[in-house]
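Task card 7
Instruction: Convert sequence to structure tokens.
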Amino acid sequence: MREFGITQISRGEILYPVQLSECMGEETPQTLAFIGSPDLLTRPLLALICSVKCPGSAILDAHEAAKKVTRSEWVVVSGFHSPMEKECFRILFRAKRPVIVCPARSLEGLRIPKEWREPIGARRMLLLSPFTTPHSRSTTRMAETRNLLVAAIADRIWIPYVDPGGKTEALADRVVAFDGLMEDVNAMIAF
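Output:
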């Protein structure tokens, strides 16, 4: 079984996303940890963030949009944590689309699922974390930082559903200031 090592990129290095400091301000991580191909960071990135609670109509729309994404140039970046994000991941994974997975914890001690090993080795999957000190469990604050990172590195942001008054709404309000990042996924993807 092949093991994957954790690599780090720091601010100022060529693959470090320059827009992070602009979007995250003083929350900008000095170093990002990754497993896999950091070259995915140079491709068109579509952030996927969705509230945990999601009505049926939004689920159906997101499911159809995810199928369209599989036929596009976009690399989806997400924590793939909420049920809707997990379903989109399954669609993208089955279609062998490149993805960037951002867990809300450090990569140190992370158990990489067996089915992820081939896409990581084939340069279709990148695991990326703003947390470089060991954290085996995520916290609400870490999830918020992760989601901000996901939004900040993306060229566009796709939020299938925002639960009114929830954490995703607070993030959406914050990223609206990232001028032009949020867009209807159907308007971005050719049918």
